[in-house]
Amino acid sequence: MNVEITAPAAHAATLPPARIRRIVAAPLAGASPKGGWSEEIQPQDSVHTLIAVHTDAGVIGHGSVFTDGRLVAAGLEVLEPLFLGENALEPERVAEKLHQNTFWMGRGGTLTHVISGIDIALWDILGKMTGLSVGQLLGGRYRSKVQPYCSLLMDEPAVMAEELATFRERGGFRAFKIGWGPFGRRDSYASDEAIIRAAREAIGPESKLFVDAGGSDAHWNANLKWATRTAEMLADYDVAWFEEALRPDAIEDFIALRHASPVPIAGGEVLTRRQTFLPWLARGALDIVQPDVTKVGGISEQRRIAWMADEFGVTYVGHGWNTALGVAADLQMAAAFPKVDYVEFIGGSAYVDGILTEPFRLDADGYLEIPDRPGLGVELDLDRLAAYAPNARELGTG
């Protein structure tokens, strides 16, 4: 029997290598959203950096890194001998090569974050050259849309309620996460509860509410007793998960909290590489695991963590306090796994809302469509991006 192979499969089978010619970093500054940390970042600070991988085939891929642009530039200089001339159509192999040859410089730090952006960009290139979305390349699309939750920093009750109501009424969101701010930082359960009560009243009983204590803050003081008592209070307001309730290395306390808490326990945004996640999954420290694709090692690493979590019965929800390219990567991964209910979406961030030619739009039900176009399925608007990255033109749009 003769079987005719049609594009894009036939085209993919005959693609010549697309060699990496150079990688450009474009630090974003001027509109950096508050991060919640005690030593607050300023709008002009660099926290997120965009990556562009240029190939000799003329195709450019884009990624995002949750790291200061100065560190990204230094990381690219260190990694350059390893990635120059590599085939951009082999993202997992190239990313693993970068990891394996730099672990002795500190696995999980700047270089891992930089590799994350490179890896995302390589998947974008592979998709563009095969004509397939990243979701399809990862094995198939389980869904065509997913619910975003509007992610906001906590504030005083009245201010918090007004902001949430605005995003609900004008933005169309039906799921919300509030975090950091004064929560857990005043030694006052009454103050914490007042914020949660105001939030629940503002969004109504039908909207979903998640709470992020921000335990990775500098010198986080709240302990297991506080977290356990607070979890009981959150259950009274139908909070769907309690995130970062403890210091990020306190695995024993997380295990105890998960067993005691009436609400699901979430965490993992500061962890990197799959090896670090394994004990948290195997020992039952989390109900919900939250790797960040712009930190953890990229799409190649994140998908391994997501599948590993599935084996342990732990829910995967990507952490996404980053950029529109981070959202695009999270959307593609949301398509590629059988059990993904949400993606994170920063409320009011210029780096999410203001750098794409076609900004994200929620539908009438509060869902985001997952792009079914080649690669990440989004395109940077270099004119708008130039307001936050002086070298935006170097990123290109190919």
TrEMBL record:
Entry superkingdom: Bacteria
Pfam families recorded: MR_MLE_C, MR_MLE_N
GO MF entries: lyase activity
Keyword terms, alphabetized: Lyase
The Mandelate racemase/muconate lactonizing enzyme C-terminal domain, residue ranges: 157-264
Name under which the protein is recorded: Mandelate racemase/muconate lactonizing enzyme family protein
Organism classification: Bacteria, Pseudomonadati, Pseudomonadota, Alphaproteobacteria, Rhodobacterales
